[in-house]
Design a protein that fits this description.
single chain; 19 strands; globular; five-stranded antiparallel β-sheet; alpha+beta; about 25% helix; Rossmann fold; six-stranded mixed β-sheet
Amino acid sequence: MTAPVTLSRLNHRFGNYHALRDIDLRIEAGEYVTLLGPSGCGKTTLLSVLGGFIQPDEGRVLIGDTDMARVQPSRRPTTTVFQDYALFPHMSLRDNVGFGLRMAGQGRRARHARAEEMLDLVGLADAAGKRPHALSGGQRQRVALARALAVDPEVLLLDEPLGALDLKLRRSMQDELKQIQRRIGTTFVHVTHDQEEAMAIADRIVVMHQGRIEDEGAPQRIYRQPKSLFAASFMGEMNRIAVTGTGFGVTTPFGPLEIEAPQGDLTLCLRPEAIGAGGDFALGTATVRDAAFFGTHCRAHLVPDAAPDLVLVAHLPPAELPAPGAKLSLAVDRADLTVFPA
């Protein structure tokens, strides 16, 4: 069973600090949504409001058609998975996973059967009798996930659940989380500050900044065509170039650019991987200041001849590492450029 979530005009303050500002958000039933942003942007506060741990100063929280304003966390159709696992060290995995069902009054046989079903879902069917100390970090996180799912929530809340794992294990768990969510169809709301993690798992990303929603949409759209300068800069590495809107296009250090843009001082944004030898807008020649091999690409700092005070970061093909001082001819596609007020 799962349900949509509707947040309307949410506001919350901690003293003089305005943590959530006029949040309006609809999360569809069965959707995997990530709340993404830097520390202090309001994403964890928003998750806490969903879980009932914080009562907002203003606004409504609907899960399905039910207003959750005065519903206690234990009575909401939500469960939360935390970064620190919060497993009971003296209990078996079976009893850890079945703990919520035990608190709900379910009999031992039924809760053990459900716990074993959930452990099987997360790939730990053979470890039901073990205790948490015998597991790796990734396995403990799977147990925490199984425990949250055992009570059959309508909405599962995940508060940076992979933050304590190393990079390789975190990527493996990202794949597993998405596969599990697709299999069971529960609505997932996942808080993270990791842009790659958000893009790897989410159906939709909600970018937050200073208590507001800056942008929301599919990962590819958010990355390639962000709606604000903050979203553009936060979603991975970005080159920012000061340009001027003329009303008919944009004046750039590399020549006039025919692109829809307002008049005045603007910031032109382009991703490092968009810079190459081909494209319909030429940047001219540039000198390689330095370059490093990153496996999937070579990351280079380039100084354009047309703008010697500007340094561009480019992700070049990995087959050949350019030497410092080498000259490269650069271009980009207009479709890969975005422009925002300065």
